[in-house]
C-alpha cells in the first residue's frame, strides 16, 4: 500500500513567551484533524509540539503537496491562531505570513516535510521536531546517519545500504539543488553541507533503488527581497531498519549536542539538546535549542505510536553536556561565535546604528 506521511508545522503563538504551547491549542488541532479522519481525508493523525511549534503529523493517500491536505493544515493553524489571539499568547499567528491560502502552504510560513512510500512489511519511522534553530541543524545528524560508518554500522555490514545514499542539497541563497553520491563524493559534499546555514540537506534517497530515506522541512526557505525568510524551527522524517539505518543508528548522532544557529532571538549559536516530549520547553535564554524524536510504526497508514525516543537515560550525558556547553557559550555574551555573524542574525540593529554613526567612520590613513 502507498501511503503519504505529511508533517506540517507552524508557530501559532507561544505560552509563555516563546517557551511552549498552551494545551488548548493542541486540543483544537486534534479536534480539527479528528474531523478530517472521520470524513475520510486522513487515515490517521497525531499532534505534538516542540517548544512553541505545533506539529501536525498526518497519513493519507493523496501524495505529496496535496492541496486538500495543505488546506486542512492551514485551516487548522488558522483555528488555533484564533484561540491563541483570544488567550493573547505570544506572537499569535507568528508563522502564518499570508492572510489567504492559495493551494499550498509552501512559502506561506508553515514548514513542511512529506514523503510518499510503499509501506514495507514493517515500517518504523522517526519524526524529529525542533525549536529555536534552523533547518541547517539537520545537516550534521543526517551526515552521521547516512554518511558515517562510525555512526551507522549498517553502511559497512548491511548489503542493502552498502552502495550508499544520494544527498540532495539546497543552496538557500541561489535556490538551486545539487545531488551528492556518497560515499564517493563525501569530501565534495562536506565542503558544502558543513556550511549549514547556506547549504541544507533537503532529502536523502537510497542509491540501490532510489527509495526515499529522509526528508527535511527546507521548502519554505528562500531569499526574498534580500532577506532570508523561514529560517526557523524545522522538522525531519527518517525511515529506519531493513536497508535504512537501524532506529539506534538514526538516534545515535544526537548523543553529541552539536552547535546550531537559533536560540535567543534566532541570533545565537547553542547546543542542540535532545529532550523528552515533556521537557521540550526551551526557557533558559529562550533555549538552548531543543529536539524531540517521535517514533512510529506505520501499519496500513495508521500511526502506531508515538514512542518518545529521547526518553532514555542513554541521552542524559548529551543533555548534561548541552547544559555545560550552554554555560560556556552564554559567557560570550555579545561576542561571536555565540552571537551569529552580523548578516545571519534574525534581529539586528546594524542598519540603524550604522546610520546613526554615519560620518564618524574616518578613513584609516
Ligand atoms: P533485533 O535482532 O533485536 O531485531 O535487532 C536487529 C538490529 O538490527 C538492531 O540494530
Ligand atoms: P521562535 O522562533 O521559536 O518563535 O523563537 C523566537 C525567538 O525570538 C526566541 O527568542
Ligand atoms: Mg514563537
Ligand atoms: Mg519556535
Strand content: 25-35%
Low-confidence stretches: none
The small-molecule ligands in this entry are:
1,3-dihydroxyacetonephosphate, magnesium ion
| Average pLDDT over all residues | 94
What are the main properties of this structure?
8 helices, binds 1,3-dihydroxyacetonephosphate, 365 residues, alpha+beta, four-stranded antiparallel sheet, nine-stranded mixed sheet, globular, 23% helix, 17 strands
Quick description:
The chain has 8 helices and 17 strands. A hairpin with a 2-residue loop joins strand 16 and strand 17.
Describe this structure in words.
A hairpin with a 5-residue loop joins strand 8 and strand 9. The protein has eight helices and 17 strands. The chain has helices at residues 23-38, 67-86, 139-147, 154-157, 186-193, 247-251, 316-330, 350-356; strands spanning 2-10, 44-50, 53-60, 111-118, 123-131, 165-171, 176-182, 199-206, 212-216, 222-224, 227-229, 235-239, 259-262, 268-271, 273-274, 290-299, 302-308. Helix 1 (23-38) packs antiparallel against helix 2. The N and C termini lie far apart (73 Å). Bound molecules: 1,3-dihydroxyacetonephosphate (2 copies) and magnesium ion (MG) (2 copies). Residues 11, 14, 18, 52, 91, 94 line the site of one magnesium ion. One magnesium ion is lined by residues 11, 14, 18, 52, 91, 94.
Amino acid at each position: 500500500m502507498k501511503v503519504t506521511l505529511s508533517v506540517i508545522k507552524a508557530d501559532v503563538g507561544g505560552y509563555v513567551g516563546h517557551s511552549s504551547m498552551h494545551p488548548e491549542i493542541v486540543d483544537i488541532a486534534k479536534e480539527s484533524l479528528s474531523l478530517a479522519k472521520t470524513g475520510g481525508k486522513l487515515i490517521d493523525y497525531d499532534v505534538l509540539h516542540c517548544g512553541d511549534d505545533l506539529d501536525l503529523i498526518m497519513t493519507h493517500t493523496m501524495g505529496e503537496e496535496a492541496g486538500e491536505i495543505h488546506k486542512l493544515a492551514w485551516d487548522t493553524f488558522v483555528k488555533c491562531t484564533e484561540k491563541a489571539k483570544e488567550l493573547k499568547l505570544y506572537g499569535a499567528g507568528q508563522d502564518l505570513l499570508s492572510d489567504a491560502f492559495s493551494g499550498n502552504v509552501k512559502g506561506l510560513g508553515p514548514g513542511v516535510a512529506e514523503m510518499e512510500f510503499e509501506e514495507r512489511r514493517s515500517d518504523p519511522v522517526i519524526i524529529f521536531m525542533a525549536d529555536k534553530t534552523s533547518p541547517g541543524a539537520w545537516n550534521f545528524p543526517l551526515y552521521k546517519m547516512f554518511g558515517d560508518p562510525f555512526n551507522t554500522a549498517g553502511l559497512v555490514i548491511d548489503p542493502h545500504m552498502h552502495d550508499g545514499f544520494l544527498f540532495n542539497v539546497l543552496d538557500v541563497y541561489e535556490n538551486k539543488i545539487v545531488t551528492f553520491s556518497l560515499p564517493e563524493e563525501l569530501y565534495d559534499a562536506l565542503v558544502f553541507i558543513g556550511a549549514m546555514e547556506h547549504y541544507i540537506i533537503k532529502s536523502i534517497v537510497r542509491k540501490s533503488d532510489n527509495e526515499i530515506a529522509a526528508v527535511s522541512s527546507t521548502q519554505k526557505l528562500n531569499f526574498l527581497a534580500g532577506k532570508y525568510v523561514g529560517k526557523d524551527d524545522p522538522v525531519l522524517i527518517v525511515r529506519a531498519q531493513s536497508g535504512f539505518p537501524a532506529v539506534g543508528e538514526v538516534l545515535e548522532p544526537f548523543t553529541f549536542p552539536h552547535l546550531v544557529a537559533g536560540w535567543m532571538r534566532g541570533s545565537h549559536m547553542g547546543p542542540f539538546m535532545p529532550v523528552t516530549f515533556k521537557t521540550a520547553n526551551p526557557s533558559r535564554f529562550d533555549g538552548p535549542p531543543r529536539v524531540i524524536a517521535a517514533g512510529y510504526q506505520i501499519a496500513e497508514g495508521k500511526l502506531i505510536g508515538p514512542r518518545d525516543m529521547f526518553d532514555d537515560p542513554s541521552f542524559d550525558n548529551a543533555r548534561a553536556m548541552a547544559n555545560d556547553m550552554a554555560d560556556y557559550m552564554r559567557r560570550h555574551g555579545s561576542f561571536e561565535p555565540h552571537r551569529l555573524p552580523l548578516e545571519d542574525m534574525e534581529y539586528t540593529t546594524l542598519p540603524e546604528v550604522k546610520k546613526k554613526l554615519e560620518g564618524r567612520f574616518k578613513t584609516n590613513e
